[in-house]
Amino acid sequence: MSFEELLREGTRLNEELPGRRGSLVERTGASALVVVGDLHGELDSFKEIIEWVKDDRCLWLFLGDYVDRGAFGVELLTALLQFQLERPDRVILLRGNHEDWEINYHYTFADELRNKGLTGALPSLLSWYDSLPLAAKVGELAAVHGGVPIPVPEGIDELEKAKADDDMGFQMLWNDPLDESYWPRGGGTRPFDEGAMEAFLSLLDCRFLIRGHQYVPNVGYKVNFGRCVTIFSASYGMGWPRAFLYLPEGRIDSEIEAYVIRI
C-alpha cells in the first residue's frame, strides 16, 4: 500500500476500534499490555521496542507524538500503520499534540513531507489525525498524551465528546503534572495536581494514569503522586535513555516502576 492508502486504512481502523466511544477507547483489560510513549519520528526506537517485547498476546497502546523532530516520521507512520493492520484489535493509537498540522508546520514534519514528495497525502493525514482517540481506559489504567483537563469533567460523556480543538481536548494533549520540573507551556495549558489526578482516575474507575508528552532527562520516565507515570520512548537522536511500559499479565501487582522497561 502507498503511504496515503495506509493512512486511509488507519483512519478506518481507528473509527472502528472495539470499545470506541467518541474520543475514548475502553477495554476491560488485556492478557498483556505494552504502553509506548512519544516516538517523534524515531523508527529505530519503535523497532527496538517490538524486538524486545516478542509477545503475541499484547495489546499495544501508543501515547501519541509520532512525528516531528526525528527525520523518519513518514517511515515510522508507515511501520505503525502496517503494525496496526496486522493486529487491528490489539493496537490503540492515541493522538498527541504533534498530530496537528500547525505544529508540524513549525517543527519538521511539514518539511519532511515536502522533501519526500508526499504533500498530496496531506488530506488523508489530517483525516487520520482527526480519527485518533484522545484517551483510553484499559482495565485499571487510564491513558492520555498530555494530562488531566482542568476542571476535571463531571461525567464520562463529557470526556467522550472532547475534541482536539476544544478546551478539554487541548488540555488532554498539552497539560503536565505540577512538580518541581513543571514549566508553563502557555497557550491555555494548565498544570494538574494530585487532587485533579485522583478525580480523573475516579471518573474512569482506574488506579493509574499513564501519559507521555514530557522528555525525562537521563531516565526516560517519571512517577508523580505515586500513580501518574510519564513514559517517553524517543532519544532525540542523542542515545538518551528511553522507556516503555510492559505488563506481561496485563495488570499491576507491585510498584508500577517495576513494569517500566528502559532501553
Give me the secondary-structure topology.
Elements: H1 3-15, E1 20-21, E2 24-27, E3 32-36, H2 43-53, E4 58-62, H3 73-86, E5 91-93, H4 101-106, H5 109-115, H6 122-131, E6 135-138, E7 141-144, H7 156-160, H8 167-174, E8 176-177, E9 191-192, H9 194-204, E10 208-211, E11 221-224, E12 228-231, E13 243-247, E14 260-262
Helix pairs in contact: 1-3, 1-6
Taken from the alpha-carbon principal axes, the silhouette is globular
Q: Whole-Å distance between the termini?
A: 31 Å
Compressed to H and E, one letter per element, the order equals HEEEHEHEHHHEEHHEEHEEEEE
Largest sheet: 7 strands, mixed
Uncertain stretches of 5 or more adjacent residues: none
Nearest-integer average pLDDT: 96
Strand order of the largest sheet: 1-2-6-7-10-12-11
**What is the beta-strand fraction?**
15-25%
Secondary-structure content class: alpha/beta
Evaluate the radius of gyration.
Answer: 17 Å
Helical content class: 25-40%
Summarize this, please?
This protein is an alpha/beta fold and 263 residues long. It is 32% helix and 19% strand.
